[in-house]
């Protein structure tokens, strides 16, 4: 039914469909994925007379993508269950990623509320300056900072002390 729907869309709109993923479930239950492009086909009088279809088997790619997504989901779950803070920053000390523990500590719910921001958005200036200086030294020397005792002020105003390890990425 989906194949027919795509064919009719091309014929009715006289417009191509490019790189559409189509799933076919075989009689034995296996899945086959194709990357489909369908374009209108015209005769010498420029009259639409049909369509041309090109299909590429992408089953292996889709299987790999599903496995990677499953592994990514498992890793995300593990990282979010760790009670320690885990984060990744770019060379300007802007957050790229953080686990649930860090997001809770700074008072944000989603990565969108954190990504692109720095410690200056969440911490008092004197602490943010300290974190920034450490990170810039790591980027400059490519040497990790191991087990540095640091104060952290949470979004709720609680002062905590952490053993911090930061490594270049």
Q: Could you state the order of secondary-structure elements as H and E? A: HEEEHEEHHEE
Mean pLDDT metric: 94
How many beta-strand segments? 7
Q: Describe the strand arrangement of the main beta sheet, using strand numbers.
A: 1-2-3
Helix content, binned percent? 25-40%
Largest sheet at a glance? 3 strands, antiparallel
Radius of gyration: 26 Å
Number of helices: 4
Proportion of strand residues: 25-35%
Shape: elongated
Q: What class, by secondary structure content?
A: alpha+beta
Distance between the termini: 48 Å
- Runs in which pLDDT lies below 50 for 5 or more consecutive residues are none
Q: Would you kindly provide a written description of the structure presented here, covering whatever features stand out?
A:
This protein has helices at residues 2-13, 59-81, 100-106, 125-141, and strands spanning 17-25, 31-42, 48-57, 87-89, 95-98, 145-153, 159-166. The two termini are 48 Å apart. It has 4 helices and 7 strands, in the order αβββαββααββ. The model has no long low-confidence stretch (mean pLDDT 94). It has a 3-stranded antiparallel sheet, with helices on both faces. The chain has a two-stranded antiparallel sheet with strand order 4-5. The chain is of the alpha+beta class and 169 residues long.
Provide the fold topology.
Blueprint: H1 2-13, E1 17-25, E2 31-42, E3 48-57, H2 59-81, E4 87-89, E5 95-98, H3 100-106, H4 125-141, E6 145-153, E7 159-166
Antiparallel strand pairs: 1-2, 2-3, 4-5, 6-7
């Amino acid at each position: 039914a989906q194949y027919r729907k795509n064919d009719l869309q091309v014929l009715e709109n006289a417009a191509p469909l490019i790189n559409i993923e189509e799933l076919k479930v075989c009689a034995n239950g296996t899945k086959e994925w194709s990357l489909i492009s369908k374009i209108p086909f015209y005769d010498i009088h420029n009259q639409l007379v049909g369509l041309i279809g090109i299909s590429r088997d992408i089953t292996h790619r889709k299987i790999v993508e599903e496995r990677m997504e499953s592994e990514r989901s498992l890793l995300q779950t593990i990282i979010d269950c760790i009670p320690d803070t885990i984060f990744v920053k770019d060379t300007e000390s802007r957050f790229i990623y953080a686990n649930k523990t860090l997001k809770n500590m700074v008072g944000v719910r989603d990565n969108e509320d954190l990504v692109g921001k720095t410690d200056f958005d969440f911490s008092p200036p004197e602490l943010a300056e300290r974190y920034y200086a450490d990170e810039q030294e790591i980027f400059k020397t490519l040497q990790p900072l191991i087990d540095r005792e640091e104060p952290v002020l949470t979004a709720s105003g609680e002062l905590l002390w952490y053993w911090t390890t930061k490594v270049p990425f």
